[in-house]
């Protein structure tokens, strides 16, 4: 049986100083992982673990001058990040 509190606590430990989430504690924030963690926390009633303003800023910073979105700083844009970034922002109501 899934223990929701343990799952949300683990996800919370994967949160980084920049507001994003890595796959494990200490791993680099990545837009795809942020979406997965944000959605899981929403399902598990754990959005309190997220600093919505800080994470919203991090996600907004994924837009490049060309208009495209990247998954992490200093990387190229890719259309798949439109889904990850914008879906996470939607969950955060940003």
Structure description:
The structure is a single chain. The chain is mostly helical and 94 residues long. 47% of the residues lie in helices and 0% in strands. Helix 2 (31-43) packs parallel to helix 4 (80-91). The longest helix is centred in the middle third of the chain and has 13 residues, at 31-43.
- Termini distance? 33 Å
Helix share of residues?
40-55%
Counting DSSP H or I runs of 4 or more residues, the number of helices is 4
Instruction: Quote the average pLDDT.
Output: 97
Number of DSSP E strands:
0
Write the H/E string, N to C. HHHH
Task: Calculate Rg over CA atoms.
Answer: 13 Å
Class computed from helices, strands and strand pairing: mainly alpha
Share of β-strand residues = under 5%
Largest sheet, strands/sense/barrel: none
Enumerate the spans where pLDDT stays under 50 for 5 or more consecutive residues: none
General shape: elongated
What's the short story on this structure?
Helix content is 47%, strand content 0%. It has helices spanning 4-13, 31-43, 52-60, 80-91.
Give me the secondary-structure topology.
Elements: H1 4-13, H2 31-43, H3 52-60, H4 80-91
Helix pairs in contact: 2-4
Sum up the structure in keywords.
single chain; 94 residues; mainly alpha; 47% helix
